[in-house]
Amino acid sequence: METVTLIGEMQSRAEELRRRGTTIGVVPTMGYLHDGHLSLVAQARKETDVVVTTLFVNPTQFGPGEDFERYPRDTERDKRLASQAGTDILFMPAADEMYPAGFKTYVFTEGLSTVLEGAFRPSHFRGVTTVVMKLFHIVKPHVAVFGQKDAQQAAIISRMVKDMNLDIRLIIAPIVRESDGLAMSSRNVYLSPEERKNAVALFRSLRFAEDAVRKGERAVETIRRGMEEILWNARVSAVDYIAFVRPETFEEVEKIDPPNILVALAVRFGKTRLIDNIVIPVS
Ligand code: AMP
């Protein structure tokens, strides 16, 4: 595996690969890699000739008071894991090359970026769409792989790709979970042992919703109440939201209709904020 840090060098490598007819897949990450990230690398490996994993803790997607400084980092371990998973090029740009003095241009997807996660983290998605657009221009991928773990992010990036006519095929890969059901996340290391045990309640509450829908329940409020009870019993310190939305638009629904519904939630254990979601087919 090659490591590239300079933007210009990554662009010329990408240009050279494209000239030779080689297809490029990109997997954008903030590092501290886990099996969720590695599943995206494996997916990209299947789809393209060369896989570029990007590792960049993007300052513009963190709000004031969020965890940018303390976000977990372990570059040596990431290099080993990225390589083992089949990465050909690890692109690790420096923050001051990505955002030099005088940086003024942002990419913003309206509507979708201001609800749910966007309501709790007002500049978050502007940072995400901006850095992803920059990475697309630097890595020049044919295929980009993102995780369903960040369902709203996936919907926003799909929208951006369509709206900006980007010639990139998106793949949204399924959520990889720990054996007890907790969705893998770099932020899980913030949890105390007791919070870690209780955090299985996120997945449990989503399974509760899935069961309820399968048994014919169609009233959002009834299901939400059951989910809240599961979460509060697990001693969460806050439920930021439990939302029932259309998967592509993130419009909230009052009643559960076919063909499917996305249930997304965000909770806090102390200072640690966790998100999870499930897509439930509705017949
Ligand atoms: P992050 O490093 O948190 O920015 O995540 C980088 C990419 O990995 C994003 O596309 C995430 O949606 C994806 N990802 C994170 N956790 C998981 C998981 N548990 N399963 C699948 N994909 C994930």
Properties at a glance:
single chain, 283 residues, alpha/beta, Rossmann fold, Pantoate--beta-alanine Ligase, Chain: A,domain 2, 10 helices, 38% helix, binds adenosine monophosphate
Short account of what is shown:
Helices cover 38% and strands 20% of the residues. With 283 residues, it is an alpha/beta fold.
Structure description:
By secondary structure, the chain is α/β, with parallel strands linked by helices. The protein folds into 2 domains: 2-173, HUPs (Rossmann fold, 3-Layer(aba) Sandwich), CATH 3.40.50; 190-281, 2-Layer Sandwich (Pantoate--beta-alanine Ligase, Chain: A,domain 2). It contains 10 helices and 9 strands. The protein has helices spanning 7-19, 35-47, 75-84, 95-98, 117-120, 124-139, 151-163, 193-198, 200-214, 220-233, and strands spanning 2-4, 24-29, 50-55, 89-91, 143-147, 169-173, 238-245, 260-269, 272-281. The strands form 2 sheets. The chain has a 6-stranded parallel β-sheet with strand order 1-4-3-2-5-6, with helices on both faces. Strands 7-8-9 form a 3-stranded antiparallel β-sheet, with helices on one face. Strand 2 (24-29), helix 2 (35-47) and strand 3 form a beta-alpha-beta unit. The longest helix is centred in the middle third of the chain and has 16 residues, at 124-139. It is globular and about 55 Å long. The model has no long low-confidence stretch (mean pLDDT 98). Bound molecules: adenosine monophosphate (AMP). Adenosine monophosphate (AMP) binds next to helix 2 and strand 5.
